[in-house]
Amino acid sequence: MPRLRCHVNSCIYYQDDYCSAGRISVDGVRASDTYATRCNTFYEQDASNSVSYEPTPEMMVQCDAVKCKYNSGHMCAAASIQISGENHCHSSEDTLCATFDIL
Fold first, then answer.
1. Paired sense of beta strands 80-85 and 95-97, if any
2. Which pTM value belongs to this model?
3. Which of 26, 51, 68, 94 could form a disulfide with 63 if both were Cys (CB 3.0 to 4.6 A apart)?
4. Order of strands, edge to edge, in the sheet holding 60-63?
5. What does each C-alpha distance from 96 to 32, 47, 48, 53, 55 come to in angstroms?
């Protein structure tokens, strides 16, 4: 399983640069670069929602970015991945897989 670091602190699953979702899904079927990918598991945090699951540094990552060299049968085979976001993310469209690398 990849070691996952997340830098999207506006996500409900974000906890100290880790993810507490247990499993994430990365989209980017037509992606040819990192900016065309996104974390489909992103859910914006607000004052009315919170998650109390333990963050986990390693997890299963389903990946639909079929042009990425780490995609192996729609699962991420990278040793580690990073999910990033520009400024304050409000939707999965604002997130990206910073580890994406074209075949």
1. antiparallel
2. 0.90
3. 26
4. 38-39, 23-27, 60-63, 75-76, 71-72
5. 13, 24, 25, 23, 19
Is residue 50 helix, strand or coil? coil
- Determine the 3-state secondary structure of 53 from DSSP: coil
Find tokens 């520009």 and name the residue. Answer: 86
Ordered alpha helix ranges (H), 23-85: none
Per-residue pLDDT tens digits for 56-94:
899 999 999 999 999 999 999 999 999 999 777 899 999
Task: At 26, list the tokens.
Answer: 């990365």
Q: What residue type is 44 in one-letter code?
A: E
Every domain of the chain and the residues it spans:
3-97
Instruction: Decide: 77 and 65 in contact? Cβ < 8 Å.
Output: no
